[in-house]
Amino acid sequence: MKGPLRAAEDRGVLDIHPSVLRKIVEHAADEVPGTLRHERRLAGIDVGEAGASARITLGAADAAALDVRLEITLQYPAPVRSVVEAVREHVGEELVRIAGHRVRTLTVTVAGLRPARPAAVARLH
Fold this sequence. Notes:
- The chain is of the alpha+beta class.
- The chain has one domain: Cation efflux protein, cytoplasmic domain (Alpha-Beta Plaits), CATH 3.30.70.1350.
- About 25% of the residues lie in helices and about 35% in strands.
- A 3-stranded mixed beta sheet has the order 3-4-5, covered by helices on one side. A two-stranded antiparallel ribbon has the order 1-2.
- A hairpin with a 2-residue loop joins strand 1 and strand 2.
- Helix 1 crosses helix 2.
- It is elongated.
- It starts with 17 loop residues before the first helix and ends in a 10-residue tail after the last strand.
């Protein structure tokens, strides 16, 4: 039979690598309606899709506080201000919920406005 759990501060620490925090931020941004993933091409060759791109800096005095620089593409036409505000809110909520980190600063750059891709057209052979 197991005894009672020790207090959290007596059980050790959990460090989450900044690359994991970056992925949480990018995924959360991509979930917001009005943001777009777009195709990536290298020398004219399709190399997949790209979504939000983030850079994370951990706070020096408080490692749970993050400075985030986020680059996103939005669907055109879109209410830019309201989509960016939704991105800010969702990213902050997801970082707290998943990793226990909070956003100290969040700089959002809208890198492009693109029309939504039309639904795939079936090909007849």
